[in-house]
Write a structure and sequence with these properties.
5-stranded mixed beta sheet; about 280 residues; alpha+beta
């Protein structure tokens, strides 16, 4: 199943068509893209009676975030060895978790630069579909509604202001710094959800490329780790980390500028386009 938020309404791809879920279900499910996550098992049973999705469609022009109001958004730092290396940091012995405040979540479209040191980070984003507490790693995929694409945009000046420890949460949570989408794709749509090609292009040039099998802490490991410490709720998001190729790791460092375009792509999930606006230079 492939779901999207189109003009604030939940739609499902059936074959090559986009179907309004509220209309197709006769009102059994409302139009709000977020509300269906509170009835995920019931929704999956209904979706099984519907025609399957075809190949991914181009994102609708008015697509919003497929999960518009997550109660918790977790970021995971240094979860690819090559990114830890370019950052000059040692590999973590357990997941390095920080908050991305939910007010930063947005869909495809434009982000306004607040400074001249904003960086890109393409990430696989996990969407929780069932209440999860003390979940075994072997069972973790059954608690996941689906996957989407995210950009963990980061103001590096703010992130590292004040010395140690860094301001990870604040520097990565400014308005528009959490674009996700355009699709939420259920794991069954993917051949191997633990091994997906991931990449990012800036103005057409490839800046990041890897596969999610290179995650240090896998998607199931992250769900198990987080749920061992706190309850996960339907609609919670986990940004799972970024591979090498960010601007901060270059010599000299390279940052986003007004007029730039990021195209973030993950195998089976489509592409997330983020346009950069503003006057920062």
């Amino acid at each position: 199943m492939r779901l999207a938020n189109v003009a604030g309404r939940l739609v499902s791809q059936e074959g090559a068509d986009l179907v309004d879920v509220a209309s197709a279900s006769g009102g059994r499910f409302g139009p709000d893209p977020h509300d269906v996550l509170d009835h995920w098992d019931e929704f999956l049973a209904w979706a099984d009676t519907r025609p399957p999705a075809g190949p991914p469609l181009p994102p609708p022009p008015d697509a919003g975030p497929p999960v518009p109001r997550p109660s918790q958004v977790f970021g995971v730092g240094l979860n690819y060895a090559d990114h830890a290396g370019e950052s000059g940091m040692v590999l973590p012995s357990q997941p390095m978790v920080f908050p991305k405040f939910s007010s930063c979540i947005t869909g495809p479209g434009a982000v306004d630069l607040p400074s001249s040191t904003v960086d890109w980070e393409v990430e696989l984003v996990v969407v929780i579909g069932r209440p999860a507490r003390h979940v075994a790693e072997a069972d973790a995929w059954s608690y996941i509604a689906g996957l989407t694409i995210g950009q963990d945009l980061s103001d590096r000046t703010l992130q590292f202001a004040g010395g140690t420890p860094p301001q990870f949460g604040l520097g990565k949570s400014l308005p528009g710094f959490g674009p996700i989408g355009p699709w939420l794709v259920t794991p069954g749509e993917l051949g191997d959800p633990d091994d997906l090609e991931i990449g990012c292009r800036r103005n057409g040039d490839e800046v990041q490329h890897s596969r999610t099998r290179h995650l240090i802490f896998t998607v199931p490991a992250l769900v198990a780790f987080l749920s061992s410490h706190l309850p996960l709720r339907p609609g919670d998001l986990i940004f799972t980390g970024t591979p090498a190729g960010v601007g901060f790791g270059r010599d000299p460092a390279v940052y986003l500028r007004p007029g730039d375009e990021l195209v973030s792509t993950i195998e089976g999930l489509g592409s997330l386009v983020t346009r950069v606006t503003g006057s920062a230079s």
